[in-house]
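Input sequence (249 aa), recorded before submission:
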Amino acid sequence: MADRKHGSKRAAQNLSNNTLCTPNRTVKSKNSKCNTPEIKKIEKEKEKEVNMSEIHQMFATMMTKLEKLDAIESDMKEIKLSLEYGHAEITDLKEENEKIKTDQNKERERIQKLEEDNNVLRRKIVDLQARSIGDNLLFFNIPENERENTTDIVHKILEEKMEIRDAQNTVKIDRSHRTGKKREENRKPRPIVVKFNFHQDQEYVRTHARKLKGTNIGISEQYPEEIESIRKTLYPELKKPKRKVNEQK
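Predicted structure, token format:
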């Protein structure tokens, strides 16, 4: 009986030892395969391949950026050339502008000189006109007829209105005529311009002009248009003192 018990115990122990050892051997063999040098080498090569791929990608990215930088550099060169061209044009324009200013100053001086000369000539012409018509008188408000002899009309006024005896023989008139464009009927008659042969006769007639008061006929010296325009401007100012004197009286 004792031998049977001991035998069964040993068999049970051997069975448990076998079952326990079998999985340990299997795990040990798998772990040893994972850590072999060949596997480690393969893993390192894979890691190198991954690193090389990343490096290639980095290089591709850098090349793309470099290409962009080259394009930017090319654009910058074009901009620089454009700026240089623009600066050159601005310099040329400045020089041309200075030349134009110089020419304008010269032209302005020339025009100013011409204007001064023109004013001198105009004054001389006005002076000559004043001298040429210095012996003239204007007769106003004398009725105008179609076929009239203005010299006879003036002589008649001198004798009848201004009380100058034998005016036709004593007062020598070179010529006379109406001045200005012919006016329509019922309009104010045109003045008569009378040119005397002698300045003394013109002065003599002018001094007798006061005798025409109340006849509506007027006498005035003839002046060039420039002088007449100035006289029209100044005449109202000349009348102011006379008006004040009359008001005080």
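Checked by second reader. The CA atoms of residues 124 and 130 lie 10 Å apart.
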